[in-house]
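Supplementary Methods, section 5.1.

A reviewer requested that the exact input to the structure prediction be made available. We therefore reproduce it here, unchanged from the version used in the analyses.
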Amino acid sequence: MERKHKVYLKLNLLSLFCIGVSFISITLAWFAYSGLSTVSTQVDVKAWNIEFMQNSQVVTNEIVIDVNEIYPGMDPIVENVSIHNLGDSNAMLSYQVVSARVLNEDLAEQEKGYLVDLLSHDLPFHINISLEDRYVEAKNGVSDFSVSVSWPLDSLNDERDSKWGNEAYKFQQEEQQKHEQDPNYTPRKSLKIVISVKAEQFIDAPETPDINYNVGDLILYDVVNNQRCETISSTCLKTYVMDANNTLANNSVTLLPDLYQTYSSGPYANYDALLNSSVSTWNVSSRALTLEDLLKVIATDNQNSFLKRDGLSDVIVGNLDFKDRITTVIDKSKSYNGRFSFLNERFPYLSSNKCYWVKTEYDTNKAYAFQRQDDTNTMIYGNDKSTSCSVVPVIVVDKANLSE
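The structure derived from this sequence is encoded token-by-token as follows.
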């Protein structure tokens, strides 16, 4: 009985060995048939190389604004950093205020956007931060990051200006005294802002900027056939993206048709009729151009777009993204003959020798209009409603209609 078990065991092992040889033979035959004698895998790893340049020098991504003296009427201080993408992957840019100290006070972020807004508007001096493009292409993409510090000489609150001016002087004296008492002590500057600029690999996410629709981008669009076009004609018009931050989550794009087209003109009281007349033959979704549309665009320039008021110093328009800040800035413009100015060169698609109405009232007798003032600037101002100005529509286009 024991001998039988041994025989069976040998037979089973022999069978398994035969099956194993069979598998090996098949495998070897496959390699022989395919002509492969060796197997090799080579993978290229994309290079990540983001370079931050300031005054032709390579700097880190941590930008420090360290100002010794701040006072009313100071010359504006501007720091510019050029961001170069020398790598193989597209990059998405963002920035964050890491810390902010004004004299002895440390300012803290209460909610997203709060600190940037506070520095831009709620102090007697203004610290404005701007990132030109949130997207930089691989190999040769470039974006500019800038910070400006200014303190207008005149404001509506002389008492506040005097208080801060005295506090700044007191702070400097105290810091100097500390240094005199202890030579190893380094006097602190009056103002220190630390900003971190971050470059990340570009990914498809709802909050990611849509690289196809940057503010000011030129798009040829057929307003009758409601689709992108290639050759300018009576219906294929030049249009310009008016969204300051169009993201992948946005299904549509806001476009401003070229100002050099022919549009209906007349007094402000006839605005709606003029608008309807201008688009009567168009087959696109359109609406009135508002002051908010214009301000969101010109605010992207944090050095040369100003709120001007008679008897007061010019103030940079500043950041308008936080809560109802844009409303408070518009309210400020409705006093002291307030108006907004911006550079023609920076926003040529918003500059015209003709005046254009904006569907936003200035007061009972005036409404906002915009027109080139000289070779350098265009002004958005309160214009008498009886004046004759043209009316340009804004069109809202589904991104599906813009696909190539």
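The first strand starts at residue 50 and ends at 54. These observations are discussed further in the main text.
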